[in-house]
Design a protein that fits this description.
The complex is a heterodimer of chains A (about 475) and B (about 100). Chain A is an alpha/beta fold. Helix content of chain A is about 40%, strand content about 10%. In chain B, a hairpin with a 2-residue loop joins strand 1 (about 85) and strand 2. The termini of chain B are far apart.
Chain lengths: ~475, ~100
């Protein structure tokens, strides 16, 4: 039996019924990861010994009669901006290449408690800033479906690891699409929960009013299994919250309304493959008996500007802590305190991080604050109001995750504005704090993957899993 | 109103942000001009009496008592570049009168 074809439930059941052990599963995935990583570069580090030790502990627990945790023996890959005590956490930055985490993120404690085996830390755009995983101090990650193309970003390593069977599930962080875009490009499921649903304690902050941690899986059910483990209020993240847990009923599909927002589903703004795939998706939902309705989100056309103003402002603030006094120092030839700051940050940060810090400093500086940051916060409100209004008449929204299929390396690296446009369909969701999932469109074997996005009402994360599973099953 | 950003602005911003940008001034200026130019589209929108949205949800943050965790502080600080007796070491930022001569 090829254990890499099992889903999370099959792994859990197999281990608890002692058909195989957590250690065997871990070994199989680690072998695959070690074999493929030189080419794909999904992992910055593979922690074989810790992983096997964790798996053996899981086996011992099962042997002693303890019940199997929900992620019993599931090999997981973790984006390298999420802390695991005692392990390096680089954020794919030169500045943190030797930094060791002094505590574990809440999501890591939850995964371990659920029996998961953590096999390594995955590559990303430096500090999660990017859309292609090309901005990493540890080299690019390659898309396992076509290695001449990017895996998307910023959680490109996590998406590639799941896509290439180097892990069964993964965690990423999503500030403007950093889970959904790479999931779509690598042909896997990725989900960004409602803001506040998952604790961010222990994830390196990028833009704090937008960041959320979320799961990757090979199917909607697998993503849901991981999500169910990591969600929940945490005292250590003041924005986290326990909220609504109900889910939509699909007993009568004709009672479900799916909204197509014209601004996020432009007839002329998609490449040919994406447009074709999206037509198929709309037809599938229609033939499943659901109502398809056109809706409008007029202010969403400004979302990209609002997003980059808010993000850069928050980035410039959050990155201030990396000053050479705390965390790491990249240059020892300093004359005074200011010199330590400027050299550490000058040598340690890559171009995109510097660009965002400078833009953030600009939009927050005296004389410009009201015109840029203040204005963006107001338009952000209009965008959120647009979503609320649309959700008065529909249950979920449907749109592409990306305007294009995965692009080639270097295609957009010299033009930051072109790179930012990759996020055009994903950023509105973060601005409004909503949940969204990307699911690979069916029937694209042998072609480049195209993901579609379902956007849900606030706290109605479960609806996305229900409708997503319905699409996957096709009935 | 279109905002023109200059080389001097980039110098000022990098000084404010404490980043040595080396020889990258020109590239940063070019990219920043394009990106900030894009931001200008927001001027078309009338946001007169709109309440600014400062967070992703309207919920109040949950609060908790701030408890000191000495073990965590020790572990955190020990992973930093230069420490002494659990304290961070920084270069001298003030000099005494005698040293000033």
């Amino acid at each position: 039996m090829d254990k890499k074809t099992l889903d999370i439930k099959a792994v859990r059941d197999g281990i608890s019924q002692k058909l195989f052990s957590a250690e065997e599963i871990a070994k199989e995935f680690i072998r695959e990861a070690e074999e493929k990583n030189p080419e794909i570069n999904a992992f910055i580090s593979i922690n074989k010994e810790e992983a096997l030790e964790g798996a053996r502990k899981t086996d011992k627990d099962i042997e002693s009669g303890l019940p199997a945790g929900p992620l019993c023996g599931v090999p997981m890959a973790i984006k390298d901006n999420i802390l695991i005590e005692g392990e390096t956490c680089t954020a794919a930055s030169k500045l943190l290449k030797d930094y060791t985490a002094s505590y574990s993120a809440t999501v890591i404690e939850k995964l371990k408690e659920a029996g998961a085996t953590i096999i390594g830390k995955t590559n990303l755009d430096e500090f999660a800033m990017g859309s292609s995983t090309e901005n990493s101090a540890f080299g690019v990650t390659r898309n396992p479906i076509d290695t001449s193309r990017v895996p998307g970003g910023s959680s490109g390593g996590s998406a590639a690891a799941v896509s290439a069977n180097m892990a069964l599930g993964a965690l990423g962080s999503d500030t403007g699409g950093s889970i959904r875009l790479p999931a779509s490009f690598c042909g896997v499921v990725g989900m960004k929960p409602t803001y506040g649903r998952v604790s961010r304690f222990g994830v390196m902050a990028m833009a704090s009013s937008l960041d959320q941690i979320g799961p990757f899986g090979k199917s909607v059910s697998d993503a849901e299994e991981i999500y169910s483990v990591i969600k929940g209020q945490d005292k250590r993240d003041s924005t986290s919250k326990n909220a609504l847990e109900s889910k939509i009923s699909l007993d009568d599909p004709s009672a479900i309304s799916i909204g197509i927002p014209e601004e996020l589903f432009p007839t002329d703004g998609l490449d040919k493959e994406t447009a074709e795939a999206m037509d198929e998706v709309v037809n599938s939902f229609r033939s499943l008996g659901m109502n398809i309705k056109s809706v409008s989100l007029p202010s969403v056309k400004y979302a990209l500007s609002v997003y980059y103003i808010v993000t850069c402002a928050e980035v410039s603030t959050n990155m201030a802590r990396f000053d050479g006094i705390r965390y790491s120092r990249t240059d020892e030839t300093y004359n005074n305190l200011r010199d330590i700051y400027e050299k550490t940050r000058g040598v340690g940060f890559g171009d995109e991080v510097k660009r965002r810090i400078l833009l953030g400093t600009f939009v927050l500086s005296a004389g410009y604050y009201d015109a840029y940051y203040g204005k963006a916060q107001k338009v952000r409100r209009l965008i959120k109001d647009d979503f609320e209004k649309a959700f008065e008449s529909v249950d979920v929204l449907l749109c592409p995750t990306s305007p294009t299929v995965p692009f080639k390396f270097g295609e957009k690296t010299d033009d930051p504005m072109q790179m930012y446009l990759s996020d055009i369909f994903t950023v509105p969701v973060n601005l409004a704090g909503l949940p969204a999932i990307t699911i690979p469109t069916k029937g694209r074997e042998g072609k480049l993957p195209v993901g579609f996005q379902l956007i849900g009402k606030q706290w109605r994360d479960n609806d996305l899993f229900e409708i997503g599973k319905f699409y996957e099953r096709g009935n | 109103m279109a905002q023109k950003i200059t080389r001097d602005d980039i110098k000022r911003l990098s000084a404010l942000a404490r980043i040595d940008i080396g020889e990258k001034e020109e590239t940063i200026l070019k990219d920043a001009t394009e990106i900030i130019g894009h931001f200008e589209e927001l001027n078309q929108i009338d946001t007169g009496d709109v309440d600014p949205m400062t967070g992703a949800t309207s919920f109040a943050n949950q609060v908790d008592y701030d408890k000191k965790d000495d073990a965590l502080i020790r572990k955190g600080i020990s992973s930093f570049p230069e420490t002494e007796d659990g304290l961070l070491v920084v270069p001298k930022i003030m000099t005494s009168e005698r040293e000033n001569g």
